[in-house]
Design goal:
447 residues, Hexon Major Viral Coat Protein, domain 3, five-stranded antiparallel sheet, 35% strand
């Protein structure tokens, strides 16, 4: 793109579905925040987008604020981002879906600890997302802050997605671009965001979160006149971008099998995280927890063997991953501090090499080990930002062109120590490359 006399311009838009009082909350019937960036002969710098506003947590329906005696917690790793359950980006003009990430907060639960370190958590993650790498510091500094300081918590968070994180600017024109963008953030239920540090969830039964003064800010590029004339005369254009697709399965046996028809031709990596199904939308537990597989007593259901497949054949690893638990017949507390080293290493490569080099990370032996919950307060109080167990595989370590799954089944086969009736949910996130084809004002996706 010509850089001659182009200019940059800032913009600010408010949600199209906000009430007159400016308050947005799941509890009061607004489950999403919707922004529209109008069609215009400009490029959007996706990495410049920030959702800004004020964030408050109320202890009960009477809008009382939490105090130091309260037991309300939220994900200290994600902060405000734990409330973003889905992200949908589509053309404002044609309504063509460009990228849709379900369980967005669950995706960020794995992405964030692999791309930020302790210093990041204390500094910019705290300032931007109201997150801190310690649950008690986050409770006192964010949840209880309004009652203590009398001011609401201000936030300004970027939106991590394949399209918006691209270094290529996004054309917004009605003829040579997407026809504007409509960005919708689906909000998570209060019951999956706020939880208690005790065992009695009734203690925070009515607690809820609320946004106010929300805006979307960003930056656009206005092309030079000579470049603009060229753009208006072209008949078609394409934009290559990354995207994240979401899938989930429930595992409840010693033989965990996942088989998915992805329908994607350029799959770069796949990563996933785990939570016992009964802990979702349960105020006794952190809905953003990323633990190993767990039995119903909190003991670790260790993975004894793990195999990734393509059309039933081992791929890209041509061998079975036999873990340290392969010959370990114990379930509960014996040898629970062991780490599935190769599993974690493959999970790291699925994020770090797919999204950029791993330069900042919260990952340590303390938050990727197999510590049983028996006799302790669980994974919500783990050190180093909380448990960050992960499954994953990288397909672009060498070629960087991805693997074709358009007509092939992706599979995972696991031998587990899940020997009790305790369903565990496995969320999977597929990082792939797509082509955005633009012609005559129409938009199509080639994946």
């Amino acid at each position: 793109m010509e850089r001659g006399q182009e200019r940059n311009a800032n913009f600010e838009v408010v949600p199209t579905n906000v009430l007159s009082n400016g308050a947005i909350s799941y509890k009061n019937g607004i489950p999403e925040i919707k922004f529209q960036i109008g069609e215009q002969d400009r490029y959007l710098i996706g990495t410049s987008l920030r959702v800004v506003g004020k964030f408050t947590i109320f202890y009960d329906s009477a809008r009382n604020l939490p105090t130091n005696a309260s037991v309300v917690l939220m994900s200290n790793r994600l902060g405000v981002l734990s409330t973003f359950e889905g992200l949908h980006i589509q053309s404002q003009r044609t309504k063509q879906s460009i990228e849709k990430i379900d369980h967005y907060n669950r995706m960020l639960s794995s992405y964030t600890p692999f791309t930020t370190d302790v210093n990041d958590g204390i500094n910019f993650m705290n300032n931007q997302a109201l997150a801190l790498p310690n649950f008690e510091a986050q409770r006192l500094g964010v949840i209880n802050n309004v009652a203590g300081s009398g001011t609401k918590n201000n936030f300004a968070v970027g939106l991590q997605s394949g399209l918006l994180s691209s270094l290529e600017p996004i054309p917004l024109s009605s003829t040579w671009g997407t026809g504007g963008l409509e960005i919708t953030i689906q909000l998570a239920p209060d019951s999956n965001v706020l939880f208690t540090n005790g065992s009695d969830s009734s203690a925070i039964g009515d607690a809820f979160y609320e946004f106010s003064d929300v805006k979307l800010i960003g930056e656009t590029i206005i092309p030079a006149d000579t470049m603009l004339n060229t753009l208006r005369s072209q008949k078609s254009t394409t934009l290559e971008y990354n995207s994240i697709s979401t899938y989930y399965n429930t595992i409840n046996s010693t033989n965990g099998v996942v088989s998915l028809n992805l329908g994607l031709s350029k799959v770069n990596s796949i990563f996933g995280n785990i939570i016992p199904s009964g802990r979702l939308n349960n105020r006794s537990f952190d809905g953003m927890e990323t633990s190993p597989f767990l039995n119903d007593d909190g003991s670790v259901a260790k993975i004894k063997q793990l195999v990734f497949t393509r059309n039933g054949e081992r791929f890209p690893l041509e061998y079975n991953i036999d873990t340290l638990a392969k010959d370990d017949t114990t379930l509960g507390d014996n040898n629970t501090a062991r780490i599935d080293t190769e599993i974690i290493e493959n999970g790291i490569s699925a994020i770090s090499r797919a999204f950029g080099d791993l330069k900042h990370s919260l990952i340590t032996p303390a938050n990727t080990n197999l510590v049983s919950e028996v006799g302790n307060n669980g994974y919500k109080t783990n050190v180093d930002g909380g448990q960050a167990y992960i499954l994953g595989i990288n397909y672009s370590a060498i070629s960087n062109v991805g693997v074709d799954f358009s007509n092939a089944l992706f599979g995972i086969n696991m031998e587990l120590q899940l020997e009790t009736d305790n369903p565990n949910t496995l969320f999977l996130f597929v990082h792939s490359t797509n082509i955005l084809a633009i012609s005559g004002g129409s938009v199509a996706i080639e994946n």
